[in-house]
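Good morning,

Attaching, inline, the backbone tokens for the sequence recovery test we're adding to the shared suite. The designed sequence is right after.
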């Protein structure tokens, strides 16, 4: 499942870590690269196919706001990921 730790924006990928009860920007370049690489590895390992789940946001939960997921979902659609 895709989570709020890696979000697509018009200016590129944004990286976050969950601390306590909120998302915080990752500042260290090494940690940013590690997170992006972790998603890359997962996305390139499927042999028979894969399902990417981008959850719906939830306006009642500040840790799962719509804006954390909607841009990523839209981006994946524009690059040709099929919807089920």
């Amino acid at each position: 499942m895709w989570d709020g730790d890696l979000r697509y924006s018009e200016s590129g990928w944004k990286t976050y870590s969950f601390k306590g009860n909120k998302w915080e920007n990752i500042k260290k370049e090494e940690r940013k690269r590690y997170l992006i690489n972790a998603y890359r590895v997962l996305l390139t390992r499927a042999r028979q196919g894969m399902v990417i789940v981008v959850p719906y946001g939830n306006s009642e939960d500040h840790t799962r706001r719509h804006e954390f997921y909607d841009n990523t979902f839209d981006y994946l659609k524009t690059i040709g990921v099929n919807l089920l």
